[in-house]
Amino acid sequence: MSTSDDLVGGNVDPWLSVSEPYQPDPPGHESDLTHSVQIRDVRKAFGSFHVLTGLNLNFVDNAVTTILGPSGTGKSVLLKHIVGLLEPDHGEVVVFGQNIWNVSERERQEIRKRFGVLFQDGALFGSMNIYDNVAFPLRKHTDKSESEIRKIVMARLEEVGLTRAVNKAPGEVSGGMKKRAGFARALVLNPSVVMFDEPDSGLDPVRTSLLNDLILKLHAEHGGTYILVTHDIRTARKVSDYVGVVWKGKLIHYGETEEAFNSDLPFVRQFLSGDSVGPLGMD
Ligand SMILES: Nc1ncnc2c1ncn2[C@@H]1O[C@H](COP(=O)(O)OP(=O)(O)OP(=O)(O)O)[C@@H](O)[C@H]1O
Fold first, then answer.
1. How many domains, in total, are found in the chain?
2. Which of 54, 63, 10 is nearest to 34 (CA)?
3. Is the beta carbon of 125 within 6 A of some atom in ligand 1?
4. Is the distance from the beta carbon of residue 75 to the nearest atom of ligand 1 less than 6 Å?
5. Which positions, given as ranges, span the membrane (predicted)?
6. Domain annotation covers residue 168
7. C-alpha separations of 70 from 80, 113, 143, 252 in Å
8. Residues 64, 242 contacting (CB under 8 angstroms)
9. Which burial class, exposed, middle or buried, applies to 279 when counting CB atoms under 10 A from its CB (0-12, 13-18, 19+)?
10. Is 161 among the domain residues?
11. pTM assigned to the model
12. Which terminal residue of the chain, N or C, has fewer Cβ atoms less than 10 Å from its own Cβ?
């Protein structure tokens, strides 16, 4: 277990030194939880810039965990480590019980197939219509027939309310529709872990709320470990079972959602209330 001093790399930070220590598992849940995704003391630097500085986090299976933190604090870098797109300089990323950098590239690719990822803009192929975009992972990674693929794709598009947009190009649909199409595509291989990188970016508050409802609905129907990165505090409060707060490359708080919103940790309190007064400034 880290102490508040470890949280700032050994420097005593007056804002953090009053905090409760970081708990690797939510209190009271240590023995009955399993963790498909474990981040163990992960450090990552780009040149001399240290982005992740010893991040530990066991994501709770079949729960929705949101990662919050200021811009540039390493949240997307963390997601890229989880899917094996970035290799840590130090520490381990253990996914489904395997250190993903102790396996072959081929095995890593197999592990990746168990992830669904929704990028900010849906990351759709502009040259394919919505149907083909959603069908793409099935055509690439399975040997299902076109009629089987059609059943799956249409069921997913129905769930996200896009059956009438199947023939449209991504450029012809709204930002919210692109995200829903990206969501359908992320779910098409029945992933065990679904990750969302700022699913609400660029959406108005109503579309954000509708997308959040959809996340909750599909999680309730299909289960899975959902990991979200967002700046939207309302999204975090609405969809999350657990909240992790990252600052200066470390996890400084992790716990059930209401616990995070009632935290006494000055940084967490400031960040979740959007207050201008506190340890977080403009730098
Ligand atoms: N491949 C890379 N090469 C060099 N620097 C990188 C690379 N990837 C990320 N960074 C840097 O790492 C830092 C953290 O980036 P990251 O995108 O993870 O932040 P974030 O917390 O997701 O921010 P935001 O909330 O603004 O999206 C940034 O300063 C970014 O410029």
1. 1
2. 63
3. no
4. yes
5. none
6. no
7. 17, 30, 43, 12
8. yes
9. middle
10. no
11. 0.83
12. C
